Amino acid sequence: MALGFAGMAVLGIQFALTARFKRISAPFGIDIIYLFHRYMAITALMLVLMHFGILWWSYADVLGSIDPRKAPWELTSGRVALVAFILAVVTSEWRKPLRLEYGIWRFTHVVLATIGFAAAVAHIVGIGYYTEAPGKRWLWLVVTLLWVFIVVWVRIVRPWSQLNRPYRVAEVREERNEAWTLVLQPDGHSGMRGFKPGQFGWLTLRSSPFRLSEHPFSLASAPEQLPRVELGIKALGDFTESIGDIKPGEIAYLDAPYGVFSIDNQKESPGFVYIVGGIGVTPCMSMLRSMAQRGDERPLWLFYANANWDGVTYREEIERLAEQLNLKVVHILEHPPGGWKGEEGFISRDVLDRHLPENRAELYYFLCGPAPMIKAAEEGLCDLQVPLDRIQTEVFELV
After folding, report:
1. Distance CA 183, CA 178 (A)
2. Are the beta carbons of 277 and 369 closer than 8 angstroms?
3. Do residues 258 and 351 make contact, with C-beta atoms less than 8 angstroms apart?
4. pTM score of the predicted model
5. Residue 62 has what pLDDT?
């Protein structure tokens, strides 16, 4: 019974973790919150499975028939909750091998979580263990109403707010390496507030914000460019591959800004180092553009890993920014062209050591890119005696 209640408590927290309350997520970053949500969901499922497993192993007679036509409704409700939670975790952890498109997965995930939670509450109330006393019933009522409030806030109140603050597509610009820049302008309102360079948001296109079809993307523009907003998007899936078909004037909805991956949170740093791969350069473009707009003269290093020279997204603009800023750009190419005199292969300790200054431990580092690149960069920086509290990593994929 204790395992069941513990699992239910952890599952209830999941709704709060994904509610995107900015004041709660501000100290950690929404990407870390979502990562924590993922691990807590697995923990909760293990607790619930142990709850069921002990009953099945030692008290099979209590479980009775598995046939819902014969079994008590409260036991059937518990089984429905268990199956829903298992499906929610399995489809999340193995979304790509199962080839679930992001929008379909997200809708399915919300439905499974809601059904599982409702069935679990019904199971607890129906069984009646430790919930029959008036005080405990009131406790469960208050907790349940709190969870319902969070669901209503996330699925009704926030989408309604977005519906009343739409954007219009102003421009769709093709970049290198199958990437696109989507430019948005606020339609009938003043635009985004509280934006720091390097943050991201959830974008909804060709759909209502109520339909759970939003996707997370980094904001590539600088706060100084508001109310105009630019997002960097690489064609990687069903939704992103259609970005090139979007036409100026189409309506869009943006839930932003989120995240703590920003130079504005490290104002005392004497300089910054950006270590990025592929489209992971997008949040760093926001920071570089902002520093250029502000006339910031602090020293900067950009280590940019790509497969080949033609696929370096924002290549020409980075060259212009290097002339405006105190910026040293180090390109690392896996397949360099003939006559290439720059770095080859992958980001490593030796590559970093060759280009970083002596005061490398005083600088602040922003890492964003594929997981293998991030791992190699973190290990290299640690070998170079860079303190861990000077390294910040953006989770490249939330799901």
Report:
1. 16
2. yes
3. no
4. 0.87
5. 83
Contact 201, 252 (CB under 8 A): no
**Residue 170 · residue 228 · CB < 8 Å:** yes
Vertex 106: Cα angle to 102 and 108 (nearest 5): 120
- For residues 306 and 333, is the Cβ–Cβ distance under 8 A? yes
Q: Where does 130-229 have alpha helices with state H?
A: 134-152, 158-163
pLDDT in tens, 151-193: 888 888 989 999 999 999 999 999 998 999 999 999 999 999 9
pLDDT of residue 398: 54
Mean pLDDT, the chain, whole residue set:
91
Enumerate residues 6+ apart whose C-beta is below 8 A from 213: 103, 106, 107, 204, 207
For 316-362, how does the pLDDT look when each residue is reduced to its tens digit (9 = 90+)? 999 999 999 999 999 999 999 999 999 999 999 999 999 999 999 99
H runs (alpha helix) in the chain: 2-17, 22-25, 30-58, 60-63, 73-93, 102-127, 134-152, 158-163, 282-294, 315-324, 349-355, 371-383
Taking the C-alpha atoms of residue 259 and residue 195, their distance in angstroms, rounded to an integer, is 10
Question: Pick from 218, 125, 140: which is nearest to 179 by CA?
Answer: 218
- Name which of 380, 315, 301, 393 is nearest 346 in CA terms: 380
